[in-house]
Amino acid sequence: MTTSKGAQKAVRGTEPAIQVAVPTADSAAFELVLSDSKPPARGRRKAVAAVNGVEAEVVTPEDQAALEKALTSNDLARFYLSNEREATQYYSRSLDLFDEGTSIINVEEELLLKKSSERVRFVRPLKLLQRQLHNTLLFVARPNMTTQDTFSVSLDYLSWSVEHNHNDTSYLKNSVEEMQQSLMQISENSRWFSTQILQDVLIDGKTLYYKIPPLLRKLYSAPERYYHVSMRMNARFRSKYAHAMYELLRENLWRRHTGELPLEEFRERMGIEDTEYLEFKRLTARVIVPALAELEQSSDYCATPKYITKGRKVIAIKFEIWENTKNLLSMNEEGSLDPERFAILREQFGISSPQIRELTRNFRLKRIEDVTDVLYFRYILAKRKFTKGYALVTKALGDTEDQYFLTAAEKTELAVHRERNRNVVREQEIQRLSADTRKTALERFNAWWPQVPTAEKLGIWQNFLSDEASVAVIGKRKLKIDAPDLTHPLVQSTFLAFAAKVGLIPNIA
Q: Is 392 contained in some domain?
């Protein structure tokens, strides 16, 4: 597939400042109606959204700030940078493959999207293409999820990502429009919210600009529970039920089964309408059997169903998950461990680089990574002594009795330990960069401010004192409106930020 240079630039380039066009009633068949229902216990009225005649409670503007705060965990905030770094790595690699013209379903490496593990209900279940596009839009946005609310992607890249190489992009526009009409609802314990998948959307030439609602950005920035979706698999499926089944399997891959799913939950996860396939034999014939068959043909993971009955009635389903070796990416001599685990094997266990390469030729990388984590936790963190690191690792890799695994609590402890170590390095780097940035900004300001004419200085100063953001920082300090005074450090730094914000000193961070 070929693309224009302009389209490729739109994928990689910095987003311009734009006024995003909000779809009107003429351009998008989305009808939002606010109506009063019975006041809840605390007297607050709930909002109700009607989407093509289907009503559902939605978050009101006054609740949004509280919900965003509730969805933001201070404990998880430290994972923002590592999540964004991972997302940037996969997205950048996808751009390379897109530029090369490699089909996404034939890539020889994984491009992974981290998704929050939540029980999601859609008002107007998504079709196959919309499910695929939704994952792509999240994949594109994830590297900047915490710093932006508007994202951009070229239509050519979007077509490539879902394996629809058509010159006519009207089908993309129609799908995006329908996605705006679907409400996404998440309910867990006392927490519940309902929101659009996409907010404002603008297509300008060959580039699509879009907004992800703040609640979803909070949810996906550093999910507490998550799973990975393969973007090459995301584009392979030809039915929405196979796609939904695949995500269900990936979400439960860690335990090798889905657990018992009540039929109501299973139907919800598959995106089955309330009026569809009410008889179990029709549900089996139209959903379960075809989805499992497509997974076996196209996916890297398959499943075997087990039906839970009460009397003669099926009340729940459980899927056992297994690897589909014919669609798994093969590991070869070119495979390499991630730098962190490579350093552990070499520095903590004393294994040489040639020995590590030998291990990667004889064992799958995933197996080496898992065993490295176990040994690091059991020996290095526990400060247990050992003599021959290579022999210890080799024995663990060859274990057939499943003795080398970490419990969920141990995995959490190890993740926290690693992130703490990374934070030490990260904080040092941030402090260094911040010091350099402040120094550079101050030097530029000191070179600029003395040259500003007195009358112009006074005008800038008066604008500064009337700026809401400035007032919020400097408070009620007794500053004279007709006499610029930058002697106080807080006033100086706030004025410096104001000058950069209004464009008086370009390139100040």
A: yes
